[in-house]
Specification:
Order of helices and strands: EEHEHEHEHHEHEHEHHH
Distance between the termini: 11 Å
Bound molecules: zinc ion
Shape: globular
Strand content: 15-25%
Length: 250
Amino acid sequence: MIIDAHVHLGEDVVFDEVNTEEELIKYYDEFDIDGGIIQPFIPRPYLEDHRKIHDRIAKFCKEQWPRKKFFGMASINPHFYPEDYYDEAKRCVKDLGFVALKITPIAHACHPSSKDAYYVYEVCRDLKVPLMIHTGNGIPFADPTSVYKGAADHPDVPVILAHAGSESFNQQARILAAKLDNVFLEPSWCGTNAVKHMIEEVGCDKILFSSDNFDQIPVELAKYRQIIKNEDDLEKVMWKNAVRIFDLKL
Ligand SMILES: [Zn+2]
């Protein structure tokens, strides 16, 4: 079984990227990926556009089930009015079955330990879902060190560092995940050597396979298969950790 913990659908107005349902299925079939957690690309900063892409993800997850085990992750601009943020997050989790919330510091212009980010933590706590935070590109906000305060102050909220700081900041991500029980690493785009150090310092219970981008799938698969020779550990990274951390109902 393989579950991709970080994949996008839709159109991104910040990074000019587009992913379609057809592409997603094509790649997941080609590489035998059993499912994944699908989050929006960054939509225009209007509530209506956020609702639209969340609905599109929910519809796709439903259509593909049970052939592919897809789940949704909500990505909502943390600078919306708190009541709007809460209503959309609650709708995604309670009505659409989404399993997590996401902050992308560079695209949301949100420091991950700011007042508005703290509100996102509170919503995660209330809805009992983990928070994924993009790290790496987009420093200083996306430096894993910027996540430290927020994650340390909310020990009951699981925090997944998307890209684990990326290649340049993976050291900070490793320190954070080793120090805080609620911090986990999603090392897409990190090189094999960085991931090897993560495994040594943090262990396979805290690392999640993910692609982030379709074309990256074979690279991500190869790097874990190269580094992790123990089958039990490989299974944890490929899907079991995702099931445990996001409480996926397979
Ligand atoms: Zn991403």
